[in-house]
Amino acid sequence: MDNRQKEIDNLKDYKYGFTTDIESTRAPKGLNEDVIRFISNIKKEPQWMLDFRLKAFERFKQLKEPDWQKPKYPKIDYQDLYYYSAPKSIKDKPKNLDDLDPKLLDTYKKLGIPLQEQKRLNGIAVDAVFDSVSVATTFREELTKQGIIFCPISEAIQNHPELVKKYLGSVIPVTDHFFATLNSAVFTDGSFAYIPEGVRCPMELSTYFRINASNTGQFERTLIVADKGSYVSYLEGCTAPMRDENQLHAANVELVALDDAEIKYSTVQNWYPGDKDGKGGIYNFVTKRGLCKGKNSKISWTQVETGSAITWKYPSCILKGDNSVGEFYSIAITNNHQKADTGTKMIHLGKNTKSKIISKGISAGHSDMTYRGLVDISPKAANSNNYTQCDSLLMGNKCGAHTVPYIKNKNSESNIAHEATTSKISEEQLHYCQQRGLSAEEAVGLIVNGFCKEVLQQLPMEFAVEAQKLVGISLEGSVG
Amino acid sequence: MKEQLQKDFDNTIKNLTLSQRDIEIKKFYLDNFINKGFPNRKEEDWKFSDLNQIIKKNIGELSFYSDYTSTNKVDTSAFVDGLEHNKIVFINGRIEKIDFDYEKKDQIEIIDQSETISKFNNNSSLSDLNSAFTNKSFKIVVKKGYQLTKPLIIYHTTNSKIWSKNINLRLNFELYENSSLRLIDLFRDTSEKNFLNIFYNFDLKENSILKNYKVDKFENKNIKYSFNNIEQDKNSISETFILSSGSNFCKNEINCNLKGEYSSAFVNGIFSINNNKHHEIRTIINHLTENTKSYQLIKSVLEDSSRAVYQGKIFVNSKAQKTDGYQLSKAILLNKDSEFNAKPELEIYADDVKCSHGSASGSLNEESIFYLMSRGLNYQQSRELLINGFLLDVVEKITDPEVKNLIKNMIGIKE
């Protein structure tokens, strides 16, 4: 028991809250055409990329910030942010990990991502993004042997322009909504992965995002293309230091699956959630969208959302190809003053398309959680199916749990089923566990893990263990 | 539309004997409506049914003036046979008859409220329109401990004398302690293309029971909106049944405030529509205190290119522990052009609650049809049997046996 208590004490505080004292280069504060040119210039981007950004910026100027979401936040001054920040030592890209600033390596070690060791371990290929730039990518050679391209997107723009040009913005166009368009204009880095025809990616690909500098918005862009018959499993993790002010994170993630391809995208989001009184924390306004472009393709989103002051995102699937499949598994946990408005969109366009949504929301403390989702079966999507289940668990009467599903069925040969429940942990369950010698907190942990099991099972091994712990930690102090 | 509204308003006011203050109030509501106009899809509550467009497409120019000075003849042959009942008769929006023959006279009070506009807890533009143009609004009070022996049928009749008109109706009901009322809203329209805008308010005191059955069965080209506000005190029960079928467009809104402990609300509805009809039910059940209960069941059968929308919301505030809220919507789409949209919503701020909702939509189960056909029924019979059974489920929820039979006969559901 003592051990467990120690572990809990250890984990109770946000352990990723440290800052790294590292010199950084920044773009001038504010958002204007010059800053966009500055970013494009520093990245030595070709003209078409700059045009892409400027087009998005033109559009952005006409857009209004949306305000229909449940969690309200104070107005963001977009002119008071830095749109580019990079560790100074990165200016000339290191050839290999040994050239990397030791401080950076240390940072990732503290985060539990030892880039060095990973070289030797047969595990996961990592692309580490520090503030605005990608600092290291591991396992490059091994992946290259199979024809897999896995690199920072800024590099992909240089080395594989034909692929980037073809797919960038094909799922999230520059004319999309406010935050997505902002990202299109100012995105700084992110990961790019291309899996060639018929290749089954031998290891998990992973990106680790870290915001370090203050006053910085992080805008990364991820693009994953799975060519015909390929398979890839992709992991994403994120942390940020503890700061009193709120920081904006507005990333775009685009997935494209061609015929018979499968993409599995898992996220463990653990941005700094703010302190007990709701001060500080990350605004996580992310746009994630997958396009099942080809026949028999499949995209599966799994997310564990425990961090951020406000989480506002809807990883979506556009099921365009016939027989394509979309899945969404989510656990969202809010505690203290955290707020979340998350869910998914399943847009059925092709015939025989199937989608499944499993969402588990847990709110505690003064937090507020909303599941918002859309299932839209278009008139042409004959013989399509959707199953949705969203369950909410409430702890205490100061928090809220809401479900707002939009269900549109325009095809008589298609079926949609939706279920939702809201409840609390029953006294009987607690009593049963405690009778068998568990403390109240342990009992809650056990029950909550059971509640989330369906989703946790979907995560790759390494993540599942971390996520399970995270679920327990996020709810510390919410019992009683 | 603005000049039309202003002109029709001035004409309507002329025919009424109103105090200066009342005219001012009505003017205020008119200005509100002119500012907002008819609701459109930009408003979240009208996302699936753009009333502005629907009126434009189906009616075009709408006239808001109604001449309430001349009376209409009440056609007694239209009354429901075989069920003794009290009546309120509206013809073309004018109240022609109020008749509580079967009840003790001193137990029911009918108050003419035409001179004071009762405020509605609803600041939608349609409520403004209603307030600006309603001619007479009555308040019907059922006294303490009195239970009406016979149901009350409100006949809403329109005939070919009017077209392209906006009709605004308003009724208030107050049910005192331990009283009960059964109410049937019956729509019979032979008119073409009018817009009916109906507001009901129900105030349910302790231990009172309201059963409200809304039957829109007969084929007509009208566009209808009906808003029902139900306030419930301790131990009160409200039961609402909606048969949504006849009109070209119909939207029923039920807003229920469960303010007293152990109060409960039941909403059951059937959409049975064809052609290019577009119907909607929107419910908001507000659980505002402990130990309240709500139950909703909505079933739809959609033919041709018809469209049904169900927006249901269960709201539970932080005081409302031990809430029991349930909501289920099911739809059968019979044609490839039919469409079902649902937005079942839960907004919950208390933890010791049991709330759930379910929604399913799809085609008729081919296996069930095969099963029935293998037992000697033809395809058409099997299909009818299945649909019958599907809808019967909702009709069986009606707790009043007399009304249940009446409605069963009316929609031709066989057991």
Task: Spell out the key features of this protein.
heterodimer; A: 480 residues; alpha/beta; 13-stranded mixed β-sheet; ten-stranded mixed β-sheet; 25% helix; globular; B: 415 residues; 2 domains
Please give a structural write-up.
The complex is a heterodimer of chains A (480) and B (415). Chain A is α/β, with parallel strands linked by helices. Chain A is built from 12 helices and 25 strands. Chain A has one domain. In chain A, strands 5, 6, 8, 10, 11, 13, 14, 16, 17, 19, 20, 22 and 24 form a 13-stranded mixed β-sheet that branches. Chain A is globular. Chain B has 415 residues and is of the alpha/beta class. Chain B has 2 domains: 371 residues, no CATH class; 43 residues, no CATH class. In chain B, helix 2 packs antiparallel against helix 4 and helix 5 crosses helix 6. Chain B is globular and about 70 Å long. Classes of the chains: A alpha/beta (480), B alpha/beta (415).
Oligomer: heterodimer
Uncertain regions spanning at least 5 consecutive residues of chain B: none
Average residue pLDDT of chain B: 90
Q: Which whole number gives the mean pLDDT of chain A?
A: 83
Main sheet characteristics of chain A: 13 strands, mixed
Q: How helix-rich are the residues of chain B, as a percent range?
A: 10-25%
DSSP helix count of chain B?
A: 7
Layout of secondary structure:
The complex is a heterodimer of chains A (about 475) and B (about 425).
Chain A lengths: L1 H11 L11 E3 L6 H10 L4 H16 L22 E3 L14 H9 L4 H6 L3 E7 L2 E5 L2 H6 L3 E4 H7 L1 H7 L10 H9 L4 E5 L8 E7 L10 E6 L4 E9 L6 E4 L2 E6 L4 E8 L11 E4 L2 E6 L5 E8 L4 E4 L2 E4 L5 E10 L4 E4 L2 E4 L5 E11 L3 E10 L7 E11 L4 E10 L5 E9 L3 H9 L4 H17 L4 H14 L6
Parallel strand pairs in A: 3-7, 6-8, 7-9, 8-11, 9-12, 10-13, 11-14, 12-15, 13-16, 14-17, 15-18, 16-19, 17-20, 18-21, 19-22, 20-22, 21-23, 22-24, 23-25
Antiparallel strand pairs in A: 1-2, 3-4, 5-6
Helix pairs in contact in A: 2-3, 3-9, 7-8, 10-11, 11-12
Chain B lengths: L1 H14 L4 H17 L14 H8 L27 E6 L2 E6 L8 E5 L12 H9 L4 E5 L9 E7 L7 E10 L4 E10 L5 E10 L4 E8 L6 E10 L4 E8 L4 E10 L5 E10 L4 E10 L5 E10 L4 E10 L7 E10 L5 E10 L5 E9 L3 H9 L4 H17 L5 H11 L4
Helix pairs in contact in B: 2-4, 5-6
